[in-house]
Design goal:
The protein is α+β, with helices and mostly antiparallel strands. It contains 23 helices and 15 strands. It has four domains: 145 residues, no CATH class; 145 residues, no CATH class; 42 residues, no CATH class; 177 residues, no CATH class. Strands 12-13-14-15 form a four-stranded mixed β-sheet, covered by helices on one side. It comes from Triplophysa tibetana.
């Protein structure tokens, strides 16, 4: 592996092989270019497969890959045989073409008339190909009878001149390949500048390794030793590496010392070239300049700033997963994207006012609903970006309104009514589960409830005990802290999604008697706060998950699914087996 300027890496792909081994690759540097599109490759098999996959169906047929050969075949097997003839020097100097399609065949009259018969079977009008004959027909039997009566015997010289393609002789084709210039414009190395750029250095290194193998016939093992030695030299330049990473981070508005240190350690820890496979360097060397893949440092930054699951291959499925009624709606009639963007900017201005007009904000948020959902569902932005573009959405009033637009039910009403209906039976189920002494955390919650049994604390006990009953670990989703004893950063450390419950004074119980403040945390950012009760904050957390299109946290996915399908009755018929089991247990308790 070679360390380039700007933090880029030049890494190999497969084991100790420096060059990307592809069966059928050309031993020379001839660049094959597709005749129908801009695709090109230095590997013969790659361009053959490209013709087969992209241009081998329909009326285009299978075209010969040689630039001076205009032959087109009906099958891939015929093309492969033709390419073999090219290599053996047995290609005829003239061919017959079809007037109705792009097909052309060797000077074999039998094959040519078999092709014309295919057009006749499709009831297409075919002209007689012989000189001085104006006969046309759409019937195969009539055309065959005409040929037998008037054109027997026939030879290649009897065909019309415009149907004969005169090809370049094989000797001239071979001479052209033998004289292929290694320093052609496609792979040339520019003259050295007074200040060499990173791009010129990359091109020179690539050209060097190409010539080592193709011109000087240096073995692959020797080339690999050179690559490893160059990498060892690059490892010594630790300060240069750190400065390069720092320049890239500053370019992308990231000046975190912690990020700089971690990335520098990442580069220094990757001492084995076989570990750095992201750039597929040999595919780059043998076919593409400049380097198409991003530097490893940028790939690392991109992974850090993406939500989990965004790197999956293929397009993301824009479909409802949690029972959303209006998941990604169409824009309203009469409103263009520019109109909705203007309304969004009006909303931003109104929110910044000391005394904003909440009625106007409601109307603007409703009018821009489709644009907002398109951005959130399609782009999957981070929570900071959503808060910057849609600041009005992060308050209790707008979360409830947005949830109703998405799911078509009221958030707080459905959540609290469903919880009040199920809380007594849930507590009975918890009580039965603690008799075996296998759930001490759940027993501590029930013991805390017995000290002060009120309706509000019953709600809290039912919610906080749910993950323990479902054998889940809620420590990273539900946290409690002294409101005056810890810093906010320390209390939220490691939290991606959850509730931060603040209390005053010492708390020795499973949950505090008096709640000072509850905050909703998303991706290490407080998005909602100043809630004085846990049940309402749970409802707001569920509302934020729907509004920002988040996935349920894995550590409590069954608890959130229970709240959705059993408590709020959103798509209750699609419950998982674990949630279905606890729902059946609740039905047995008729209190």
């Amino acid at each position: 592996m070679i360390r380039l300027s700007g933090g880029q890496l030049f890494a190999h792909v497969r084991g100790t092989n420096v060059f990307y081994d592809l069966p059928g690759s050309a031993t020379h540097l001839m660049k094959w270019t597709c005749k129908f599109c801009n695709f090109s490759s230095y590997i013969e098999k790659t361009i053959v497969n490209h013709y087969k996959d992209k241009h081998g169906r329909g009326r285009t047929g299978f075209s010969c890959i040689y630039p001076n050969c205009l032959t087109v075949f009906q099958s891939h097997v015929e093309l492969l045989k033709h390419l073999t003839d090219h290599k053996q020097g047995t290609i005829p100097v003239a061919r017959l073409r079809c007037e109705l399609c792009t097909f052309s065949a060797p000077s074999n009259i039998k094959h040519y008339f078999l092709h014309l018969k295919r057009h006749l079977i499709k009831r297409e009008t075919v002209n007689c190909p012989f000189v001085g004959c104006c006969f046309t027909s759409r019937v195969a039997s009539t055309f065959t009878a005409h040929r037998s009566r008037y054109h027997q015997p026939s030879s290649f010289n009897n065909f019309k001149p415009d149907l004969i393609i005169h090809c370049q002789s094989q000797a001239s084709v071979n001479d052209e390949q033998d004289n292929f210039d290694l320093e052609s414009p496609d792979v040339s190395v520019t003259e050295p500048d007074s200040q060499p750029t990173q791009k010129s250095v990359e091109r020179r290194i690539a050209s060097l390794f190409l010539r080592l193998q193709a011109v000087l016939h240096v073995s692959k093992s020797a080339i690999q030793e050179i690559v490893d030695d160059l990498f060892d030299i690059g490892k010594c330049a630790g300060q240069i590496t750190r400065e390069s990473i720092e320049n890239v981070l500053e370019k992308h508005n990231c000046t975190s010392e912690e990020c700089l240190t971690s990335l520098t350690e990442l580069f220094q820890s990757r001492g084995d070239p076989r570990c750095c496979c992201e750039l597929s360097s040999l595919r780059w060397i043998s076919g593409a300049f400049p380097l198409k893949s991003p530097p490893l440092v940028l790939m690392h930054c991109a992974r850090v700033n993406k939500r989990k699951g965004e790197e999956a291959k293929g397009p993301r499925m824009k479909r409802s997963k949690k029972g959303e009624v209006h998941y990604c709606p169409d824009p309203p009639e009469g409103l263009s994207d520019e109109d909705m963007e203007e309304k969004r900017m009006m909303m931003e201005v109104e929110v910044l006012k000391k005394d904003p007009d909440h009625q106007q904000i409601d109307e603007l948020m409703s009018a821009t609903f489709s644009k907002r959902r398109k951005e959130i569902v399609g782009d999957q932005p981070l929570i900071g970006d959503v808060m910057a573009r849609w600041p009005a959405m992060f308050c209790e009033r707008q979360v409830r309104a947005e949830f109703k637009r998405v799911v078509s039910i009221d958030l707080l009403e459905s959540f609290l009514d469903g919880l009040d209906d199920l809380a007594p039976r849930l507590l009975e189920v918890y009580e039965a589960a603690t008799k075996s002494a296998k759930k001490p955390a759940l027993k501590a919650i029930l013991d805390c409830l017995k000290k002060d049994d009120t309706n509000e604390r019953r709600r809290i006990a039912a919610l906080l005990g749910l993950p323990h009953y479902l054998r889940e670990e809620p420590s990273d989703i539900i946290r409690m802290c002294d409101a005056h004893g810890e810093t906010l950063a320390a209390a939220m450390e490691g939290m991606q999604l959850g509730l931060l419950i603040g209390y005053e004074g010492d708390n020795q119980d499973a949950f505090p008697r008096e709640v000072f403040n509850v905050a909703v945390v998303v991706e290490g950012t407080v998005v909602l706060h100043n809630f004085k009760d846990v049940p309402s904050s749970f409802a707001m957390l569920l509302g934020i998950i729907y509004c920002v299109n988040l996935e349920y946290p894995r550590a409590m996915k069954y608890s959130f699914e229970f709240l959705q399908r059993v408590v709020m009755k959103i798509k209750p018929d699609q419950a998982s087996a674990r949630v279905h089991g606890i729902r059946n247990k609740l039905l047995r308790y008729n209190l």
